Amino acid sequence: MGVKLSRQKPRNILLSLIYRTQKILPFSSEYKIKLFLNLEWIFDRLSHEMSFKYYSPQTHPVRQCSKKFILDNLNETSCVLDLGCNLGDVSFIMAEKAKKVVGIDHNIAAIKTAKNRYQR
Q1: Cβ of 82: how many Cβ atoms within 10 Å?
Q2: Which residues form the domain of 46?
Q3: Each residue's pLDDT tens digit, 48-85
Q4: Distances (CA, A) of 85 to 29, 89, 104, 106
């Protein structure tokens, strides 16, 4: 007998295959863990890189999460030095709330672009 519950999430064929395969792999548990951590890193990296094809820099989930964190942790009296500011995108986000933001970068062309893009 027993209780049969409906499946809450869709079945992922690759994940099912990995679960079943790992049981028969003739490797130690330590080696399997290292292997799966390496695979996790690879898939995480690939998904991050591919996500930029679908999202603009301003609407990317990583940027939105960073923006929320920055704005939650700054106040109107904050003075910020953004070292390695590149094109100034993050500096511009911080300027929404901080009293003063200074961006510094060794790339002169990036600084010129940032100045043109974010003139006040």
Answers
A1: 20
A2: 13-51
A3: 899 989 998 788 998 899 999 999 999 999 999 999 99
A4: 43, 8, 6, 9
> Do 65 and 25 reside in the same domain of the chain?
no
In total, how many domains does the chain have? 2
Please report, for the domain that includes residue 75, its CATH number.
Answer: 3.40.50.150
Share of the chain above pLDDT 70, in %: 98
What is the sign of the dihedral through the CA atoms of 29, 32, 34 and 40?
A: negative
**Residue 76: strand pairing partners:** none
User: Residue type at 48?
Assistant: H
- Paired with 104 in beta bridges are 83
